[in-house]
Amino acid sequence: MAQSHDNYPIAVLFTCKQCKHGRPIAPFSTVQNPVTPEETWLQFLNGFPAWQVPSRPTVVVSPHPDDETLSAGGLIALQRRAQLPVSILAVTDGEAAYRDQPHLGETRAAEQQAAAQALGVAPEQVFRLRLPDSRVSRFEDDLADRIAAHLATGTLLIANWPHDPHPDHEACGRAALRAADRTGASLAFCFFWTWHQNRPDSLAHLPLRRLELSDDLQQRRADALACHRTQLQQSDGEPVLPELLLKPARRNFETYLLHD
User: Fold this and answer.
1) Angle at 252 between CA 233 and CA 194, to 5 degrees
2) What's CA 79's distance to the chain center, in Å?
3) For residue 162, what are the β-bridge partners?
4) How far is it, in rounded angstroms, from Cα 196 to Cα 163?
């Protein structure tokens, strides 16, 4: 089902499956050019202030295996380098990324474990919630409770922006917001599909912050990303994440939205 914003092509065309709100959901099937070129995003993001990440225990909500790396891999590596506790809440196993691959969820879960270790996170700190891929919004109340169970006042919580254009990302962002408000955790939102389906004016008036990444942190993130092999290469078709869509994950900084 193709969509468009005015005359701009949507970066990703979804299959015709629908979420409960009637919007198309994963798995993704076709990749086109992003709505906004990477060079335009780099110019737009250049003026935002740097973020000094708080030295606190950190919980990262990952809608699918690879989201922890694509959106927050540098931050995870930074916190672990400082020997701060980091937990990853693996919301789904990403089993719906491709059709007709019955063991894909198991494979992707193993890839996420390897990526987490590359970022310095121990296997026992990756908590698998096993909600159904593409249907997280149906379990949003439960997800908010399960996120809150990992939080305390002052915990740093990282989750996708509630408007990051993928239904599972949106649901995770909303659930994280509720959990943070309930527990007093500090919340920062991260992004991925925003870079491919939005324009800069969608973020223009938000208090964005840049997390500058050293060469070492960039390398750790790259090593973690390489663990997600099923998303980077497919023998019989286009992978979910061709190199065209990985440019934001190759930046020498990451972008966060701080929630008051």
Assistant:
1) 65
2) 17
3) none
4) 13
Query: Which residue has 């990703």 as its token pair?
Result: 12
Architecture category of domain 4-259 in CATH: 3-Layer(aba) Sandwich (3.40)
Helix orientation angle between 215-226 and 104-118, rounded to the nearest 10 degrees: 160
DSSP characters over the chain: ---EETTEEPSEEE-S-B-TTS-B-SSEEEE---SS-HHHHHHHHTTSPB----SS-EEEEESSTTHHHHHHHHHHHHHHHTT--EEEEEEE--TTSSTT-TTHHHHHHHHHHHHHHHTT--GGGEEEEEEPTT-GGGGHHHHHHHHHTT--TT-EEEEE-TTSSSHHHHHHHHHHHHHHHHHT-EEEEE-STHHHH--GGGTTTS-EEEEE--HHHHHHHHHHHHT-HHHH--TTS--SS-GGGGGGGGSSEEEEEEE-
Report pTM: 0.89
Q: CB 55: neighbour CB atoms within 10 A?
A: 11
Tens of pLDDT along 82-119?
A: 999 999 999 999 999 998 898 999 999 999 999 999 99
131-176 residue pLDDT tens: 999 999 999 999 999 999 999 999 999 999 999 999 999 999 999 9
Q: Where are the domains of the chain?
A: 4-259
